[in-house]
Amino acid sequence: MNITLEELRKIKHQLPTGSVKKIADELQLEEQAVRNYFGADKYTSSEAIVDRHIQAGVVHLEDTRILDAANRIIRDNQMKNLQLQN
């Protein structure tokens, strides 16, 4: 999957406090790996999470588990906020 750095950062900024730790725990990753993912840095272990920059400002993601978890947390948080308003 290809995504812009701007889109990744927008998603990161929408995450509620504590989400990086929650994602890291859920996926059994280090918190720094999750932070690096949104900065499009390579995770320096045996598993590269961000495959490569394909052009300025765009990265190719081989593994979307972190992105999927982040989007799920954002959706859940939005639903929770809507329920609180009603």
Unreliable segments of 5+ consecutive residues: 43-48
- The overall pLDDT average reads 84
- What is the overall shape? globular
Query: How much beta, percentage-wise?
Result: 15-25%
Strand order of the largest sheet: 1-3-2
Number of strands: 3
In terms of structural class, how would the helical and strand content be classed? alpha+beta
Please report the number of helical segments.
4
Distance between the termini: 37 Å
Order of SSEs: EHHHEEH
| Share of residues in helices | 55-70%
**Sheet having the most strands:** 3 strands, antiparallel
In short:
By secondary structure, the protein is an alpha+beta fold. The protein contains 4 helices and 3 strands, in the order βαααββα. Helix 1 packs across helix 4 (65-85) and helix 2 crosses helix 3 (31-39).
Care to describe what's here?
With about 90 residues, this protein is of the alpha+beta class. It has one domain. It has 4 helices and 3 strands, in the order βαααββα. It has a 3-stranded antiparallel beta sheet with strand order 1-3-2. A hairpin with a 2-residue loop joins strand 2 and strand 3. Helix 1 packs across helix 4, helix 2 crosses helix 3 and helix 2 packs across helix 4. The longest helix is centred in the C-terminal third of the chain and has 21 residues. The chain is globular, with a radius of gyration of 13 Å. The N and C termini lie far apart (about 35 Å). About 5% of the residues have low confidence.
Keywords:
86 residues, alpha+beta, 3 strands
